[in-house]
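Example record

One chain of 228 residues, shown exactly as stored in the release files.
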Amino acid sequence: MAKRARLWLIVILALAAGVAYVQLSGSRHTASGVPIFVGSRDDVQQVAIERGGDRVELRLDGDVWRIVGHDSLEVRVAPIDNLFDRVLKVERTTLMTRSADRWSVYSVDDSTGIRLSVRNAAGEELAAFVFGQSRQDWSKNYVRIGSGKAVFLTDNNITYYLNATPDFWGGKPEPAAADTTGPDIDVGADVPSDAPPASPVLIDAKRDTSGPLKLELDVEADTAKAQE
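Predicted structure tokens for this chain:
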């Protein structure tokens, strides 16, 4: 009886140890609530995105973002805000692998990944990421951070905001509206007392009016009469 009790005790302890190992192993592979970028937005002055053979570079000029090589385009506010408020604030969660041989499985290798690099005003890289689309859950992505080999699952899908075409980030500015307002005219203004009276315009009704109407004005005679 005592031997059977000891056997059951050993079994229970073994099961407890197994459960503890699984829980500990799972906690090591999960990093919930950890943003991929912990730097300040004010430090980011340059952004480069590479995707599917396309590349776009953005630089902060004073307070205005500009697209390098596309001066005719005016950068929109919404894509820039999404970059900082959604992409750089996305959180990494489950650790998927630590092996570079499996990067292609998660679409974060050199040929299929979406690259994002953020730099300061001096061109020094603050952070770099490679994103891949999850094939099992389209609401999430995979991300490889910096030069590390580890691949993490993200808590949101942010690849839509990582477009590498200039037209996604900016557009041609609206043309300036033409000024159709002329000088103010006071139609009720008084005529000066010393101004000559307006001369009547005489039209000879006997003349041929089949052609263009012609007005004959004797300006000199009218002026002389006005001065008498």
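Notes: The chain has four helices and eleven strands.
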